[in-house]
Amino acid sequence: MEENKNQQGGLQMELPQDVAQGHYANFAIITHSSSDFVLDFARILPGVPKAQVKSRVILAPEHAKRLLQAMQENIMRYETQFGKIQIPNQQPRTIAPFGNGNPEA
Predict the structure, then answer these.
(1) Predicted TM-score (pTM) of this structure
(2) Cα 14 to Cα 71: distance, rounded to the nearest angstrom
(3) 98: closest CA among 52, 26, 36?
(4) Neighbours of 13 (CB within 10 A)
(5) Domain boundaries, the chain
(6) 99 vs 13, 60, 81, 103, CA distance in Å?
(7) Is 60 exposed, middle or buried (0-12, 13-18, 19+ CB in 10 A)?
(8) Per-residue pLDDT tens for 42-80?
């Protein structure tokens, strides 16, 4: 295992070798219940009719909001350094496994 030398608030993290490489995802589905947010990260490949979920992360609502804030801060820094991220006007069609039936991708 590899130790992450970066400390945030005195917390040390271990990053196992098999996790360090990560998983590529080009599609995400977010659903929620009253107690959890579920983030499914998937990979869609050309010519393959079915997306394959590569990772599922389940968060408490408070942690989901903290993740949102951290993402917003990092996107602002990214756009300052590299320019505005362009998003094409395309609405993905998904079916939520639970929650309110309105997934956000």
Answers:
(1) 0.70
(2) 22
(3) 36
(4) 11
(5) 17-82
(6) 32, 14, 37, 8
(7) exposed
(8) 999 999 999 999 999 999 999 999 999 999 999 999 999
